[in-house]
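As a warm-up, study this chain.
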Amino acid sequence: MKNKPPKVPNSARDIAHYIATGQVSLVGAGPGDPDLLTLKAVKTIAAATVILVDDLVNEAVLQHANANARIVYVGKRGGCASTPQAFIEKLMISEAQKGENVVRLKGGDPLVFGRSGEEIEALQKAGIRVHIVNGITAALGALASLNTAMTHRDHAHGVLMVTGHAKPGDPGTDWRALAHTARQAKLTLVIYMGVAAAQRIQDELLHGLAADTPVAIVQDATLPSQRQALCTLDCLHQTLAEQRMASPCVLLIGDVLRGLAGLGQAEVAELARGQM
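Now compare it with the structure written out below.
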């Protein structure tokens, strides 16, 4: 059954209610470095009266908020206690219905594994105006820090972005099928939230990808605390354990990384610091 579009005001009462109702902006705070915030995001944050902040948002981003804005932390991070999604949606709706200009501030881009689809649907059902402000997603920040690309005419004709964190009760991604597709179509795999399931992801991908397929693991992309490691697909889980790397991490897999594979770990670390 298709969702009904937001009700269009056609009476004096409806029009008065519509004018009094605020709006919600889903804003991407970028991968971590506050300098990567877009100008549009800065303006939208500055105009907000209520800001709902995700756990991965750099605190420095909030320097752009109005001093009178109410800031509410609604942390959501895998493996940690999280604010229930239903509560966040109800809070956004109730604040907007009071006439507040609400910003839902998310790490990376709000449309990439940010639960925005659910939030947009809930807001539209409530007749709330929704505004989207894109941000730089973590994978782009990670690749840029390593001076490599997602695509390459010789090695990668496209990109598959996928989450390694399945909804409870959902079997999640068919990694074997994904591996065969990535090999046949020459695609770069970008896996978000894949640390906890890294062993299974590795084992399943090896049914379609070569053991020596290069992998880059990037933790805390674009932040001063960024760490990175290079390995091959058959050593993904072992490398995560040995290097003690943890979420938030992005796993980058594919032949587009062949150039990096010729470098040592120390050289890659220097590259990420901008010293090469």
